[in-house]
Amino acid sequence: MKIVLATRNRKKVEEFQRVLVGAPLQLLDLRGYPDAPEVVEDGTTFTENAVKKALQVARFTGLPALADDSGLEVDALGRRPGVLSARYAGPGAKDRQNLERVLVELGECPELERTARFVCVLAVADASGQTQTFEGVVEGRIARTPQGENGFGYDPVFVPEGEGRSFAEMSPAEKDALSHRGRAVARFVAALHGHVGPVLA
Ligand code: ITT
Questions:
Q1: Closest residue CA from atom 4 of ligand 1
Q2: 199 falls in which pLDDT band (50, 70, 90)?
Q3: Percentage of the chain surpassing pLDDT 70?
Q4: What whole-number distance in Å separates Cα of residue 31 and Cα of residue 7?
Q5: Nearest to 49 by CA among 121, 126, 104
Q6: Contact 68 CB / ligand 1 (< 6 Å)
């Protein structure tokens, strides 16, 4: 089955290509559709935004589409940045600026209160408008300073539960095995193999 990855984030595309190796899918991405419209992410939940992205790309391309809406929820910040993760420091903000804003807002917040989680909602849609979603979550905490060079986004400050290293200090395979995206993709692949649900039937 051909499926279009409905994301403009190159790092997400790389992660999908890694974790979907071996799945019975031919992965296409938006580089092949330069005129695909920009999706306005105005939903208040990851699910709303993921479904919107997948539907718009499926309708535009006429092919099934797989979208990811994801982000970081920091408990001491009332679960922000959440759906605003990509633009927490303002429109067009760079990953480093977003991460610095989280660190500044947390300030001297003690270790035990620096709990956080990454959430990923994957939405699959087909051109007829049917959708399915799959969620993955990884619990962890926010480090005091950025550590490591791998990954993207908030990886240098996110330390998964039970680990001493940030995602950015792990190899890609180590991150994939623990990550919110890895977990959501595992659920998607299980459904694919079981041929369950409207889109994957
Ligand atoms: P698309 O909408 O085109 O997929 P995006 O980067 O705008 O790309 P989102 O709206 O889903 O995607 O925002 C997700 C943001 O959450 C992302 O830019 C990072 O800042 C953060 N994020 C998500 N997954 C992450 C991960 O695995 N590691 C680090 N940060 C992550």
A1: 7
A2: confident
A3: 98
A4: 10
A5: 121
A6: yes
Known catalytic residue at 95 = no
Q: What is the pLDDT of residue 201?
A: 63
- Are 49 and 83 a contacting pair, CB within 8 Å? yes
Q: Which two tokens stand for residue 172?
A: 């890609």
Averaged pLDDT, 71-93: 97
CB of residue 160 inside a 6 A radius of ligand 1: no
Domain ranges of the chain: 2-194
Atom of ligand 1 at shortest distance to CA of 71? Answer: 16
| Residue minimizing CA distance to atom 31 of ligand 1 | 153
Report the Cα–Cα distance between both ends of the chain, in Å, rounded: 11
Count CB atoms within 10 A of the CB of residue 107. Answer: 8
Q: Which fold has domain 2-194?
A: Maf protein (3.90.950)
* Ligand 1: centre distance to CA 147 (Å): 19
Query: Which tokens belong to 88?
Result: 């927490």
Contacts of residue 144, Cβ cutoff 8 Å, sequence gap at least 6: 103
155 lines ligand 1 (CB under 6 A): yes
The per-residue pLDDT for range 115-131, each reduced to its tens digit, is: 999 999 999 999 999 99
Write the single-letter amino acid at 170: M
Residue with tokens 């060079």: 149
